[in-house]
């Protein structure tokens, strides 16, 4: 009998636990944010935030949205939405319908000072309660344009550098035809304490022709990359035998394609007026010659 009572008590406890668990699930209201975002300096970035309500919840009024920038000391957190003076004119709400679940914002013209944590908060009034829910914060990190080129003092070396937000998770590496190269010189975090960023750099020896690729990673995620195609010396004649012929491919950085300068076109444009000037000069000289010997 005692054993039977324990079983029944245990069964009742499990039912009550499931009841409260299911009830809590029905009344669940959550705010979701991505943990980390990266963006290029000067670009715009979408900062996602989504409000999730269970089917049994009914909002009495549209939720009130807040976005704040979390300072390190936790005091005087400036409002991002509705924008405070610091963010005035730089923030837009992506969905102006207050009843939708999307509470994402667009932060324009991102600067180094924008690096840091952001929190999305929503005030909700339901039939039975009034409360505020917070997201788990989003860490925004910024990187500058990556530079990948031959070093000025020695064309046998290829250097890559980029400025990034101070974070140990950023790693810079150079690959040759898919294989990671051992750098001859590296700066894992050359930083000035006054500056809001650090400079990552690597330099490698050019071994052979092929594609060299500089990649910036944040932990396991590729952030941006730059490509450099290198050709071994071409012996056109004795004077050019030691000349390295290199070609920089279009470099994709955050969807923006940068092409190399069209120097042959510039030279052709310069030759056109020179050719015309020489022709006019020759015609003038011939006319003067004919007039003189008539």
Automatic annotation (TrEMBL):
Subcellular location: Cell membrane
Keywords: Cell membrane, Disulfide bond, Glycoprotein, Immunoglobulin domain, Membrane, Receptor, Signal, Transmembrane, Transmembrane helix
One Gene Ontology biological process: cellular response to lipopolysaccharide
Transmembrane segments: 263-286
Topological relation to the membrane, as annotated: Single-pass type I membrane protein
InterPro entries the record matches: Ig-like_dom (IPR007110), Ig-like_dom_sf (IPR036179), Ig-like_fold (IPR013783), Ig_sub (IPR003599), Ig_V-set (IPR013106), T-cell_Activation_Regulation (IPR051713)
Protein's name in the database: Ig-like domain-containing protein
Organism: Perca fluviatilis (European perch)
């Amino acid at each position: 009998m005692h054993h039977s009572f324990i079983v029944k008590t245990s069964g009742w406890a499990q039912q009550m636990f499931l009841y409260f668990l299911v009830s809590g699930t029905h009344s669940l209201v959550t705010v979701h944010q991505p943990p980390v975002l990266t963006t290029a300096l000067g670009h715009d970035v979408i900062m996602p935030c989504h409000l999730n309500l269970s089917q049994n919840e009914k909002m009495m009024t549209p939720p009130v949205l807040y976005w704040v920038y979390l300072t390190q000391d936790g005091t005087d957190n400036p409002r991002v939405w509705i924008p405070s003076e610091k963010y005035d004119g730089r923030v837009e709400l992506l969905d102006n319908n207050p009843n939708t679940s999307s509470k994402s914002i667009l932060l324009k013209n991102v600067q180094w000072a924008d690096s840091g944590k952001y929190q999305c908060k929503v005030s909700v009034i339901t039939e039975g309660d009034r409360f505020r829910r917070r997201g788990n914060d989003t860490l925004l990190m910024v990187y500058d344009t990556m530079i990948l080129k031959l070093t000025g003092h020695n064309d046998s070396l290829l250097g890559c550098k980029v400025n990034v937000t101070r974070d140990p998770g950023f790693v810079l590496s150079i690959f040759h035809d898919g294989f990671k190269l051992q750098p001859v010189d590296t700066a894992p975090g050359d930083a000035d304490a006054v500056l809001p960023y650090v400079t990552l750099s690597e330099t490698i020896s050019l071994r052979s022709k092929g594609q060299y690729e500089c990649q910036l990673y944040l932990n396991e995620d590729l952030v941006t990359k730059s490509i450099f195609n290198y050709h071994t010396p071409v012996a056109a004649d004795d004077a050019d035998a030691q000349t390295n012929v290199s070609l920089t491919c279009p470099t994709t950085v955050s969807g923006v394609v940068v092409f190399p300068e069209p120097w042959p076109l510039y030279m052709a444009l310069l030759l056109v007026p020179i050719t015309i000037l020489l022709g006019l000069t020759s015609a003038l000289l011939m006319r003067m010659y004919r007039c003189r010997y008539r």
